[in-house]
Amino acid sequence: MRVLHLVSEKTWRGGEQQVAYLIAELQQHQVESYVACRRGSAFEAHCKQFNIPHLSLSFSKLALFGDARKLKVYINRHHIQLAHMHSSLAHTLGVLSHVLGARAALVLSRRVEFSIGRNPFSTFKYNYSGIKRILCVSDSVRRQMAASIQDGSKCVTVYSGIDLEKAAASPTRNFLRSTYQVPQGVKLIGNISALDRHKDYFTFLETAKLLKERGIKARYFAIGSGPLEAVLKAQAVKLGLREDVVFTGFLKNAKQVLPELDVFLFTTVKEGIGSTILDAFANRVPVVATSTGGIPEIVRHGQTGLLAPVREAVALADHVQRVLADPQLRDYLTEQAYKLVLTFTQEQTAIRTLAVYKEVLGVG
């Protein structure tokens, strides 16, 4: 089986990691993987490093038709049987190449909880007949997608998975505490995600303020970068948290420092599934998160973590305080979460994805 993955983003985030996992696992099942990626992107570098056959394109909105023609030629020349589109822009390019004559079945991944656009082209591309399946990262995303398109039966749930061995191996000992001079006895509470609006670090900061007012001795880590970094730093100062919140920026060893946290505090307002939560599970770090999107499908309140409504800083602070004060609760939550994450591996994601490929192509 020959599959081409369309990866449009410049940077490397959770979606790109999922594609990399998928390609590696599919190789174990004798699937030949090809990639169409953005020129100069992190994924292009990944393809070069691991000798993955790839086509580099501009993925510029101004050059979409030119890119689509190149993609059509590449697909037909290499006898690609199925093209897997992994983002909105990849979706657009894949559909255009198919309209122009690319002879490959199309499948689409949907990892975000956002509503689809209502303009005529969005309506066209999401209902395009050449798309045989839409792989949704959670049941929540699947329900939303199924209600938004003409043929909701195309939508299936395929959960993201993690590399369990890497996620739970070789932690960086005391990196946060030593690098940022955090005294012993001060708890470490953090989030690993982009500093953008839908991750809602504003509520993260409000929660930190409440915990500080309650006498909780903690340092709060915002691990990531993004467009709201300057605004969030100013907000932290405004809330009197200048010395309490650390904005680390992007950390290459983010997953390795995760085990240092006493609580993983995830305050997003929209989320397909939250693969970093799975990493926290793998490292037995207790999770307090907002009940949105696909998160309740993995953070089961009182069993694998604690949930609070979106933007409810008081409830989030209550949950964090409860976890810190109750070692038995912490141990129970982390043990149950670890058992659950054993079923959310990259191997399982690949097996379920391959089953969809075979169904679409009509092969055994």
TrEMBL record:
InterPro entries: Glyco_trans_1, Glyco_trans_4-like_N. Residues 13-166 form the Glycosyltransferase subfamily 4-like N-terminal domain. Pfam families: Glyco_transf_4, Glycos_transf_1. It comes from the Bacteria. Residues 176-339 form the Glycosyl transferase family domain. This is Glycosyltransferase. It comes from Pontibacter saemangeumensis. The lineage of its organism: Bacteria, Pseudomonadati, Bacteroidota, Cytophagia, Cytophagales.
